[in-house]
Amino acid sequence: MKYLERGYLEADELPPFPPEERINSKKPVAYIECPQSIPCSPCYESCRFNAIEMENINDPPKVDYEKCTGCMACIRVCPGLAIFMLQVKEGRGYVTLQYEFLPWLEKGDRVRLYNRRGEEVGEGVVTWALKPERNDRTQLVTIEMDKDLIFEVRAVRKR
Ligand code: SF4
Ligand code: SF4
After folding, report:
1. How many H helices and E strands in the chain?
2. Cα(104)–Cα(147) distance, rounded to whole angstroms?
3. Best of 26, 62, 72 to mutate for ligand 1, by most ligand atoms within 8 A of CB?
4. Atom of ligand 1 nearest to the CA of 47
5. Structural domains counted in the chain
6. Cα–Cα distance for residue pair 28/85, rounded to 1 Å
7. What pLDDT is attached to residue 29?
8. Closest Cα to residue 40, out of 89, 72, 78?
9. Euclidean distance between CA atoms 39 and 58, whole angstroms
10. Rounded to whole angstroms, what are the CA distances from 109 to 23, 73, 105, 124, 130?
11. 75-121 confidence digits (pLDDT tens)
12. Residue 132 reports pLDDT greater than 90
């Protein structure tokens, strides 16, 4: 489990990406980067479509990309910021992720894009932003970017 010392996942430690035809569809698809065996299951419990497989609470979640409807219930409840919604439409890429910095992001904001190592890899635009509830500290945001970057970008910061 080298990723624990390193602090991020390398390409060969990632789950398989959703097939191209699922990413290029009308609904985004959940991609979960949560490899550690820990007793955590809000994602599994939140999925009404049985798209998340987990035989016991310590298992890392596994998404059935055919069953995932893109409803975003799982990404709202993940305490580990480990879920990303991926989509490509009209040649542009979109990643929805959890965001916990102030100031909160708003639609139209320009953001810097960072990969898993924390390296800046480009620039994107916020196309959707859900403000947190009063007692929550996590915002959900969708970022438009170059379509090839959706497999790499895992954090953003306001410009
Ligand atoms: S986006 Fe919805 S359908 Fe897809 S895995 Fe998450 S909760 Fe299940
Ligand atoms: S809720 Fe998040 S941290 Fe917990 S098992 Fe699911 S993906 Fe991992």
Report:
1. 4, 9
2. 24
3. 72
4. 7
5. 1
6. 6
7. 98
8. 78
9. 4
10. 24, 24, 7, 9, 13
11. 999 999 999 999 999 999 999 999 999 999 999 999 999 999 999 99
12. no
- In total, the chain counts a number of residues equal to 159
Domain of 87 in residue numbering reads as 2-158
Quote the pLDDT of residue 134.
75
Site to probe by mutation for ligand 1, drawn from 68, 76, 83 as the one with most ligand atoms within 8 Å of Cβ, is 68
What is the band of 127 on the pLDDT scale with cuts at 50, 70, 90?
very high
Decide: 74 and 83 in contact? Cβ < 8 Å: yes
Q: Is 7 exposed, middle or buried (0-12, 13-18, 19+ CB in 10 A)?
A: exposed
Question: What does the H/E/C string look like for 46-92?
Answer: HCCCCCEECCCCCCCCEECCCCCCCCCHHHHHCCCCCEEEEEEECCE
User: Residue 135: what pLDDT?
Assistant: 73
Residue 86's DSSP bridge partners are 29, 95
Ligand 1 centre and the CA of 159: distance in Å? 30
- Least Cα distance to 29 among 118, 107, 93, 81 occurs for 93
Give the strand pairing for 92-99 and 110-114: unpaired
